[in-house]
Amino acid sequence: MTVEKAEYDLSDTELTTLSGNIPAQKGSYVIAFYLPEEQIIRVGRLGEYLFQPGFFLYTGSAKGSGGLKSRLKHHMSCQNKCHWHLDYLRPEMQLVGIWYTTNTGVFEHAWADILSQWKGVQAPVTGLGASDCKCHTHFFHFRRLPAIRTFRQKNRQLIVEPPDIKEVRRTQQPFPVLPAKLRSGLQR
Questions:
Q1: Do residues 85 and 44 lie in contact, with contact meaning Cβ atoms separated by under 8 Å?
Q2: Residues pairing with 27 in the sheet
Q3: Could you tell me the end-to-end alpha-carbon distance of the chain, in angstroms, rounded to an integer?
Q4: How many CB atoms lie within 10 A of CB 174?
């Protein structure tokens, strides 16, 4: 499947700036996207799904060569060849930001559990990003973007030795037109 880059997506300059702020160490991450309107998207072999407008958070880990920098640069850019489930969704969604840790533990599963318990969360595609584990999904839909400070608090409450979580956000306003109802959901 060949994909085209959406006109509102990251510029090459912004992609370089964002990826320059991410370490090459191994770690775990949450990547946040925004979908401006309802859309049917084919997710590889998982099939076609109707995605509601809002924010989508995906949990993952980067344990291979190149670590977080390599994996997140892949997720930030729109690939012509789809490798992971997220590659099918990425061209349709705007990158909002990334939360990550360079802690050597694998936190993607604990973070998926934390996000799954968030008030108002939905899991639009069972198994997305979780084909190699027992998690229900690693991909979550929110009407409002969760605040990183709340995510950090939940980590401290639920994880015995919580990692230090850092954030990388887009420097430019990522939304060409954002309804007031959703704008009020942007929290730091």
A1: yes
A2: 62
A3: 36
A4: 20
